[in-house]
Design brief:
The structure holds two protein chains of two kinds.
Chain A (H helix, E strand, L loop, with lengths): L1 E5 L9 H5 L5 E3 L11 E3 L10 H5 L5 E5 L5
Antiparallel strand pairs in A: 1-4, 2-3
Chain B lengths: L1 E4 L18 H15 L5 E5 L14 E4 L5 H11 L4 E7 H7 L1 H9 L5 E6 L29 H4 L5 H5 L5 E8 L3 H19 L4 E7 L3 H4 L3 H15 L3 E4 L7
Parallel strand pairs in B: 2-3, 2-4, 4-5, 5-7, 6-7
Antiparallel strand pairs in B: 6-8
Classes of the chains: A alpha+beta, B alpha/beta.
Chain lengths: 72, 249
């Protein structure tokens, strides 16, 4: 179980995250944020594995990744 | 659920002023993550350049100094000599380090100053509006080379890492890129090593980060990372050019 959180108000719509998602679930929204950009978001959150590659390439730290802790 | 990726402690929670898709943001984050991991946030002093990254002091949550254009390694030398227990680094672009500041970083390396230079190479002058930089590739169109850089008129791009490698004072020299997830992971390792070289007192360290400038290249951010991969990396090969002997760090 994993979750990615997009801080959409910080997104500048560069689309770098959309190209690297191995599941292809990061998409651009049609809405406009306060800065005037179309922010990226995730659809089909349940498919997310929490690999964090989208967050790795994001230049504006829009994305936070949460993962279930592994049972020891 | 546990947060596995969020903003590093050493970066203030403010939005960057950089253009959409500019990889300065990635480079900032990597430096901040390394400083967090090494636990030196209270002990580090950064030197900001003149260029797009001139406002880094607004973003990094530790002590920063601004130097005159290209003079960051000279200022860092002074800081390090007065406060030798601090970790001192410069964060410079190619217009700052490789043009007006060529004398400063070369001689800081010659003297073996125990400082770290983070050198952002995006092959263009970013802040001033996209003029030719010393690192602009042959044939690359910029505001001042509208027909492409011509070696007859404009000379050849400067290869900073190759230039530093023969110098005895340089302990660690590496060229990395931030255009793909794999490259970003390798870039972080190189930055960490550069700081460790300084902490262990081995000498001068420099990490050249190939970066994108979508605005001045006239490309979308996605086209820009592709352009970097296809054009810059063949001319500026990635890798560690100089490493300390095995087992030292």
């Amino acid at each position: 179980m994993a979750r990615v959180i997009f801080l959409e108000e910080r997104c500048k719509g560069c689309q770098l995250c959309t190209a690297v998602c191995p599941k292809g679930i990061v998409v651009m929204t049609g809405s406009t944020n306060e800065m005037g950009y179309h922010p990226a978001t995730v659809h089909e959150q349940d498919k997310c594995t929490g690999c964090g590659i989208c967050a790795l390439v994001c230049p504006d730290m829009v994305i936070e990744v949460e993962r279930e802790e592994k049972a020891v | 659920m546990k947060k596995v990726f969020s903003r590093p402690r050493s970066l203030k929670d403010v939005p960057f002023h950089y253009c959409p898709g500019c990889t300065h943001g990635v480079a900032h984050r990597l430096v901040a993550e390394v400083i967090d991991e090494l636990g030196i946030q209270d002990n580090v002093i950064g030197n900001a350049p003149v260029g797009c990254a001139v406002f880094t002091m607004d973003y990094f949550d530790f002590d920063m100094i601004s130097a005159a254009h290209g003079r960051a390694p000279a200022v860092a030398t002074g800081v390090k000599r007065v406060l030798p227990d601090r970790v001192v680094f410069t964060y410079q672009g190619d217009g700052d380090l490789a043009a007006i500041g060529t004398g400063e970083f070369v001689h800081a390396a010659v003297r073996g100053e125990k400082i770290t230079c983070i050198f952002i190479n995006n092959a263009v002058y970013g802040m001033t509006g996209g003029q030719m930089a010393p690192t602009t590739l042959l044939g690359q169109k910029t505001k001042t080379t509208p027909y492409g850089r011509d070696s007859e008129v404009n000379g050849y791009p400067i290869k900073v890492c190759e230039m530093l490698t023969p110098l005895d004072g340089a302990a660690y020299v590496a060229r990395v890129a931030v255009h793909s997830p794999k490259a970003i992971i390798q870039a972080k390792k190189a930055i960490k090593k550069a700081f460790q070289v300084q902490i262990n007192g081995l000498g001068f360290s420099l990490v050249e980060i190939l970066s994108t400038c979508p605005t001045n290249w006239g490309l979308t951010p996605l086209e820009a990372v592709k352009w970097l991969d296809e054009n810059m990396i063949p001319y500026f090969p990635l890798g560690e050019y100089k490493v300390p002997p095995a087992g030292v760090i």
